[in-house]
Design brief:
Layout: E1 10-18, H1 24-35, E2 39-47, E3 58-60, H2 66-79, H3 81-89, H4 99-104, H5 106-110, E4 117-121, H6 125-137, E5 141-145, H7 148-151, H8 157-163, E6 166-169, H9 172-181, E7 188-189, E8 211-214, H10 223-232, E9 240-243, H11 249-259, E10 263-267, H12 271-280, E11 283-286, H13 301-308, E12 313-316, H14 321-324, E13 330-333, H15 338-350, H16 353-370, H17 373-387
Parallel strand pairs: 1-2, 1-4, 2-3, 4-5, 5-6, 6-7, 8-9, 8-11, 9-10, 11-12, 12-13
Helix pairs in contact: 1-17, 2-3, 3-6, 10-11, 10-15, 13-16
Length: about 400
């Protein structure tokens, strides 16, 4: 670990659903912290369905028994009676929930002995839990804001920004959005990084491989427009493979059939299977849009992983994607424009293989410099140190 920051620091992490296939950045960050000697304890609200290699074990709020809650609460009150009483009796409930909800976290608070910082991923419920734990233990908290928690769950964001020891977000688009609504708010930029050693190409680029898109089947991913674009570009681009699951699956399957689009919906795949699909692909695409309810992506990790594997990429001129995709790395088109999207896919497919290889290599170089898991985790470690 020469040249890297290492520490004996002990940090508690709070997540919502864990482990989660769509949130591999959380487990990646935890693994990198462990590699640097940081001791972590992980708390989550509910158990996720994702099977992620190397994901540290977690304690889940919904699985804590009543006897353990009571015993832990008594132990906390014995050590810090005033602070515990204040946390339980606070009528303002600025972090939501009830006194019973606060008491339910007592086993987690008790497990935080020796922890000097608590950090939450997502500014919604996980940060509420982190803030409650902070009140119970006196340990400072921070959070990283991502997407849905910024654009849909805005309630109490100004309060959280004020109360947290620090707050981070994952792209300039998010930072600008929050700063416009909370003037003077300080947000640090910590990009969701990619393990560029794990995502490194092991076989030659296949210029005839499929077009791969990875993401949940939800409105903000823009997959409806990808299906329409693929139908328009039929015969001029390879088959399009969409990896993921979600509430729009049946609607997308019907659209594929109606348009006779060269698209296959593969359903969910493991992180390792996604990596293998990207290595077999000729390009990656994610046509993000802003959903009707305001929900949106920020800077999707799936495209960064594709770029780390030296794929040319196509995205939309929306959210944080312009920060990621330049003309030397891929193409940007207007959101919700199936014709423009088809044109970009056809344009890349028509390039000579060596031109596409050059795009892919430029993309990997960009990710190594600006979206590197080790570099970004180092930034977070610096923020933990500053907070202490």
């Amino acid at each position: 670990m020469s040249g890297e920051q290492s520490t004996e620091r002990r940090v508690a992490y709070v997540a919502g659903t864990y482990p989660e296939l769509s949130e591999t950045f959380v487990t990646g960050e935890l693994r990198e912290l462990a590699r640097r000697g940081v001791k972590t304890v992980v708390f989550a609200v509910v158990r996720g369905g994702g099977e992620l290699q190397g994901a540290p074990p977690a304690t889940y709020v919904v699985e804590l028994s009543k006897p353990s809650q009571l015993a832990s609460l008594v132990a906390l009150a014995g050590r810090h009676p005033v602070r515990t009483a204040r946390a339980l009796l606070d009528r303002s409930r600025r972090w939501g929930g009830s006194a019973r909800d606060m008491a339910a976290l007592a086993p987690m608070a008790r497990a935080m002995r020796g922890v000097d910082h608590v950090h939450a991923h997502f500014a919604g419920q996980p940060t509420d839990v982190a803030a409650r734990l902070s009140e119970l233990t006196g340990v400072p908290f921070s959070f990283t804001a991502h997407a849905h928690d910024v654009f849909v769950e805005w309630e109490r964001m100004p309060l959280k920004l004020d109360a947290a020891r620090f707050a981070a977000t994952v792209c300039e688009y998010n930072r600008d959005y929050i700063a416009e609504r909370v003037p003077g708010a300080r947000l640090d930029l910590v990009v969701c990084g990619v393990d560029t050693e794990a995502f490194e190409r092991t076989r030659p680029y296949d210029s005839d491989g499929p077009v791969v898109a990875v993401g949940r089947l939800v409105e903000q991913k823009g997959f409806e427009y990808l299906v329409r674009a693929a139908a328009r570009a039929r015969g001029r681009i390879p088959e399009v493979l969409i990896v993921g699951d979600g509430p729009l699956r049946s609607k997308l399957e019907a659209l594929v059939g109606d348009l006779d689009a060269p698209v296959r919906l593969l359903g969910p795949r493991s992180h390792e299977q996604v990596r293998a699909l990207y290595e077999s692909a000729s390009m990656a695409v994610l046509p993000c849009v802003v959903a009707a309810d305001g929900n949106r992506d920020s800077m999707p990790v799936s495209l960064k992983e594709a770029m780390a594997l030296e794929l040319p990429v196509v995205g939309t001129d929306e959210v944080g994607l312009p920060e990621l995709i330049g003309p030397d790395r891929g193409r940007l088109v207007a959101p919700r424009d199936a014709e423009a999207l088809a044109g970009a896919l056809v344009e890349l497919a028509a390039l000579a293989p060596d031109e596409r290889v050059a795009l892919g290599r430029a993309g990997r170089a960009f990710v190594q410099q600006h979206c590197n898991l080790r570099t970004e985790t180092g930034k977070l470690l610096g923020l933990f140190a500053r907070a202490a």
